[in-house]
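Example S7 (structure tokens).
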């Protein structure tokens, strides 16, 4: 066997949280770890390759229940995508319309047991968010859904962070409308053991600099909601002064005059998280 990794280390290496890894093993049989004499799970480099393959198919939009067959055939031939994501979205919209908070919470728990956060957010949560926000004649629908999802994500992140001992990370956004996406990113990065620090959507550019310095964060991620040119310049001025790796996503202002330690992330959350985790370096 190659180098062996216990489940938490394997989760850090792959960005897939332990709950999801266990579901992939028990419910779907798409990954089978080795076991110690005491029954503890151990993973090796071949398992890392297998997880990358699983994530590839999920990123193509295939539901988890189809992945085993796709990996067996190693081909998309005769494997038409079913409408699983649409079905999940419609189910969530129906439950949200009924203001059934408990049922929504269970749907999110079940979904995150099967899918990494970045994929679940892009394929299910984001389309539902866009739908409820478009229902202008029913403002309660969006308010209640966003409140419940925000509460769920805060709870998940708090539980996750108790065991994390990786590099310190500061997450920030300049607008509350971008907060849910940032919280989803926080949970996705927490699966890779990052120690995530987040202080709400109202930090000013100066606050961000002070917090990064005080916490000695190795990395800073700012998700930018569309803002004025003046505000964008204020953010860039403070980010240039931060002595940490800086990552930008969203409506990124003109970065021509930005320092070399500032990186612009791709649009899709899955690619953002991957780029963030795989970019080398830390404190400058």
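Recovered sequence:
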């Amino acid at each position: 066997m190659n180098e062996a990794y216990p489940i938490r280390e394997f989760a850090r290496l792959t960005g897939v949280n332990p709950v999801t890894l266990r579901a992939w093993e028990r419910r779907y049989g798409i990954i089978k770890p080795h076991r110690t004499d005491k029954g503890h799970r151990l993973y090796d480099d071949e398992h890392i390759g297998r997880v990358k393959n699983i994530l590839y198919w999920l990123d193509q939009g295939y539901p988890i229940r189809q992945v085993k067959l796709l990996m067996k055939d190693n081909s998309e031939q005769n494997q038409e995508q079913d409408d699983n994501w649409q079905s999940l979205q419609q189910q969530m919209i129906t439950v949200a319309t009924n203001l059934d908070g408990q049922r929504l919470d269970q749907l999110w728990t079940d979904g995150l047991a099967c899918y990494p956060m970045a994929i679940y957010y892009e394929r299910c949560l984001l389309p539902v968010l866009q739908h409820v926000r478009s229902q202008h004649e029913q403002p309660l629908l969006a308010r209640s859904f966003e409140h419940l999802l925000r509460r769920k994500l805060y709870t998940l992140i708090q539980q996750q962070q108790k065991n994390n001992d990786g590099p310190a990370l500061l997450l920030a956004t300049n607008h509350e409308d971008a907060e849910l996406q940032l919280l989803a990113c926080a949970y996705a990065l927490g699966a890779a053991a990052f120690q995530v620090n987040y202080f709400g959507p109202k930090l000013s550019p100066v606050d961000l600099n002070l917090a990064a310095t005080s916490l000695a964060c190795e990395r800073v991620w700012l998700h930018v909601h569309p803002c004025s040119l003046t505000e964008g310049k204020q953010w860039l001025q403070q980010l240039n002064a931060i002595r940490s790796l800086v990552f930008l996503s969203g409506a990124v202002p003109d970065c021509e005059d930005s320092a070399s330690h500032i990186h612009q992330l791709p649009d899709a959350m899955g690619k953002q998280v991957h780029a963030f985790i795989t970019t080398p370096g830390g404190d400058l």
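Notes on this example. The chain has a mean pLDDT of 89.
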